[in-house]
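INFO worker-7 received task bundle
INFO bundle size: 2
INFO processing item 0
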Amino acid sequence: MLPVSDEFRINIINFGRGVRNKLHFHSSEQVLIVTAGTGIVATEEEEKIVAVGDVIRIPAGVKHWHGATEDSEFSHMYVMRKDSQITQVED
């Protein structure tokens, strides 16, 4: 069971092979903790391959996406403020 917090939203996200979310940003920073597989975390400037145990901090307002590589499923836990807003910038 995931811990419950009055201040933070904590969840686990699973991606199938080659699946990613759309380019977006948050109003507060987001922390990703890779729990399974191999994935990609990308900003407008760079793409980084991430694997189990990696911890990634994405600052507030930074446009980014994350998802699985073509040959691996991918899971991560995320932590961010409960009041954080998400803005999708990719259709």
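INFO item 0 finished
INFO processing item 1
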Amino acid sequence: MEEAVAELCRALTEANGITQDDIVWAMFTVTYDLDADFPARAARVAGGWDRVPMICSREIPVPGSLPLTVRVLVHVDSGRPADAKHVYLRGARVLRPDLHK
């Protein structure tokens, strides 16, 4: 969990040219098969988001949905929402191929 969340945090900040100081809050969700750690803890420790308010939740366990998935919704105070770059790593790319370049 820690390695994957750190990778996600880095990818989001690099792709969007932001720092944790630009992040107002973040909400993580995990699929039901991930229960050994909180992604917010991993984001604080390994992802460098130690000043970002965060909360974690579980995804709805829809049959056939992608397993072992961590998602994050980040509220960034940038004034440029149309410029947001969505990041889908590893197997999560299948979730929104229209947004993944």
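INFO item 1 finished
INFO post-check item 1: The longest helix spans residues 2-16.
INFO post-check item 1: The domain at 2-95 is CATH 3.30.1330.40 (60s Ribosomal Protein L30; Chain: A;).
INFO worker-7 idle
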